Automatic annotation (TrEMBL):
<protein>
    <recommendedName>
        <fullName>Histidinol-phosphate aminotransferase</fullName>
        <ecNumber>2.6.1.9</ecNumber>
    </recommendedName>
</protein>
<keyword id="KW-0028">Amino-acid biosynthesis</keyword>
<dbReference type="GO" id="GO:0004400">
    <property type="term" value="F:histidinol-phosphate transaminase activity"/>
</dbReference>
<keyword id="KW-0808">Transferase</keyword>
<dbReference type="InterPro" id="IPR015422">
    <property type="entry name" value="PyrdxlP-dep_Trfase_small"/>
</dbReference>
<dbReference type="InterPro" id="IPR050106">
    <property type="entry name" value="HistidinolP_aminotransfase"/>
</dbReference>
<comment type="similarity">
    <text>Belongs to the class-II pyridoxal-phosphate-dependent aminotransferase family. Histidinol-phosphate aminotransferase subfamily.</text>
</comment>
<dbReference type="Pfam" id="PF00155">
    <property type="entry name" value="Aminotran_1_2"/>
</dbReference>
<feature type="domain" description="Aminotransferase class I/classII large">
    <location>
        <begin position="31"/>
        <end position="351"/>
    </location>
</feature>
<keyword id="KW-0032">Aminotransferase</keyword>
<feature type="modified residue" description="N6-(pyridoxal phosphate)lysine">
    <location>
        <position position="222"/>
    </location>
</feature>
<keyword id="KW-0663">Pyridoxal phosphate</keyword>
<dbReference type="GO" id="GO:0000105">
    <property type="term" value="P:L-histidine biosynthetic process"/>
</dbReference>
<dbReference type="GO" id="GO:0030170">
    <property type="term" value="F:pyridoxal phosphate binding"/>
</dbReference>
<dbReference type="InterPro" id="IPR004839">
    <property type="entry name" value="Aminotransferase_I/II_large"/>
</dbReference>
<dbReference type="InterPro" id="IPR015421">
    <property type="entry name" value="PyrdxlP-dep_Trfase_major"/>
</dbReference>
<dbReference type="InterPro" id="IPR005861">
    <property type="entry name" value="HisP_aminotrans"/>
</dbReference>
Length: 355
């Protein structure tokens, strides 16, 4: 017996971790720094860690209460109803929820190219088709309304990413609204805001409050440092928010994840510390790298280095793991995350040495 035809599905290949790379190179993991996965350089929210320890003995219970509590806390924060908060197993899980609710087999979604792979993967998993709009280096990889609408052909969903991974470009609220206004009534504009806290820009949730054709995806992985817990959510229009109960898997966010998320929301000190560090790191990369960089709203910088595979391999051999962007369709670029001050300085020194 065979699976259904999966030949058109892309495989998501995460960046290799420190332990794997250390074994490959035959070195001590302590000698390596990993700046390839856009993780929080300061680690998880301390308040979240405390909550995990506090609630560890409650793991025999399903997370009904904590799930409801986190939904209510997020609803209060964003000025929406709890029914509009779709908690999920990471931002990826929130994308799955939206695809499951919106796409009938054969309908299409429009996504950027290059792009974070999972946008298109989620659509295909749910028997949808993927169409793309190009992001062009010459104009700073902008996700402009004209560029998107030139490619638009009545797709059921359009993905915008602000800030965009891997380029760092952002989309203004006026541009999101223009795209929503100029597309069909049956098209949902989804704004992936995984990195938005680092951009210091207003969230597109403002548009969700006023429209029924805009949704937002957010995550606890980045600014709160909870990537290993897999906690994210979508904020959806009030008109069809009750669809969540019909498409959600049972308890898609765990007890520990929900408790950690509740605590992280109150950890303003941690958020301020990491956003300040990221702002410093981006400026340090811009000023000190001997290569072209691109202005970014994320906790990473895209760098033009010529032969990305060669440069990424060479920096890895020197103990600095960066992301070869060939998998994004950018074979001349690497992406380097903002680390601690020591890690960022070492990354600049290493990349410049390789170049």
């Amino acid at each position: 017996m065979d699976t259904r035809d999966l030949s058109s599905h892309t495989i998501y290949r995460a960046g290799r971790g420190i332990e794997e790379t250390a074994r490959e190179l035959g070195v001590d993991p302590e000698e390596l720094i990993k700046l390839s996965s856009n993780e929080n350089a300061l680690g998880p929210s301390p308040k979240a860690v405390e909550a995990i320890r506090e609630h560890a003995e409650a793991l025999h219970s399903y997370p009904k209460a904590s799930h409801a509590d986190l939904g209510e806390a997020l609803a209060e924060r964003w000025g929406v109803t709890p029914e509009q908060i779709w908690l999920a197993n990471g931002g990826d899980g929130a994308m799955d929820c939206l695809a499951r609710a919106m796409i009938d087999p054969g309908q299409a979604a429009l996504v950027p190219d290059p792009d974070f792979t999972y946008h298109s993967m989620s659509v295909r998993y749910h028997h949808g088709e993927v169409h793309t709009y190009p992001l062009v280096e010459a104009d700073g990889f902008k996700q402009s309304p004209d560029r998107i609408l030139d490619a638009y052909d009545g797709e059921r969903m359009i993905y915008l990413t602000s800030p965009h991974n891997p380029t760092g470009s952002t989309v203004s609220l006026a541009e999101v609204e223009e795209i929503a206004e100029r597309t069909d009534d049956g098209t949902l504009v989804v704004v992936d805001e995984a990195y938005n806290e680092f951009a210091d820009r207003p969230s597109a949730v403002e548009l969700v409050e006023a429209r029924d054709d805009v949704a937002v995806v957010r995550t606890f992985s980045k600014v709160y440092g909870l990537a290993g817990l897999r906690l994210g959510y979508a904020i959806t229009p009030a008109e069809w928010a009750d669809a969540y109960e019909r498409i959600n898997t049972p308890f898609s966010a765990s007890e520990i994840a929900c408790r950690a998320g509740l605590a992280a929301l109150e950890d303003d000190e941690h958020v301020d510390a990491i956003t300040d560090l990221v702002e410093w790191g981006r400026e340090y990369y811009y000023e000190h790298l001997d290569a072209k960089t691109y202005e970014t709203g994320g906790n990473f910088v895209l760098v033009e280095v010529g032969d990305a595979s060669r440069v990424a391999q060479a920096t890895k051999e020197r103990g600095v793991i960066v992301r070869d962007c060939s998998s994004f369709g950018l074979p001349e670029h690497i992406r380097v995350s903002c680390g601690t001050r020591e890690e960022t300085r070492r990354a600049v020194e290493t990349i410049n040495e390789v170049l």
